[in-house]
Amino acid sequence: MATFTLHTETVQSWLPLSRFHMLFHWVVILFLVYYRFTRIFEYNNNTIQWIFITVAELILSVLWFFNQSYRWRPVSRSVMTEKLPDDANLPGLDIFVCTLDPEKEPTVAVMDTVISAIAMDYPSNKLAVYLSDDGGCPVTLYGIKEACEFAKAYWLPFCNKYAIKSRCPKAFFSPIGEDDCLLRSHEFMIEQEDVKIINEQPETPLVVYVSRERRPSLPHKFKGGALNALLRVSGLISNGPYLLVVDCDMYCNDPSSAKQAMCFFLDKETSKSIAFVQFPQMFHNLSNKDIYDNQSRAAFKTMWQGMDGLRGPGLSGSGNYLYRSALLFGSPNQKDDYLLDAESYFGKSSMYIESLKVIRGQQNPKKNVPRDAILQEAQVVASCCYERNTKWGTEVGFSYLILLESTVTGYLLHCRGWKSAYLYPKRPCFLGCAPTDLKDGMLQLVKWLSELCLLGVSKYSPFTYGISRMSIIHTFTYCFTTISSMYSVAFILYGIVPQVCFFKGIPLFPKVTDPWFAVFATIYVSTQIQHLIEVLSGDGSVAMWWDEQRIWILKSVCSLFALIEGIKKWLGLNKVKFSLSNKAIDKEKLKKYEQGKFDFQGAALFMSPLVVLLIVNIVCFFGGLWRLLNVKDFEDMFGQLFLLSYILVLSYPILEGIVAMKSKSG
Ligand SMILES: O=c1ccn([C@@H]2O[C@H](COP(=O)(O)OP(=O)(O)O[C@H]3O[C@H](CO)[C@@H](O)[C@H](O)[C@H]3O)[C@@H](O)[C@H]2O)c(=O)[nH]1
Ligand SMILES: [Mn+2]
Question: Which residue ranges run through the membrane (predicted)?
Answer without folding.
Answer: 20-37, 49-66, 602-625, 637-655
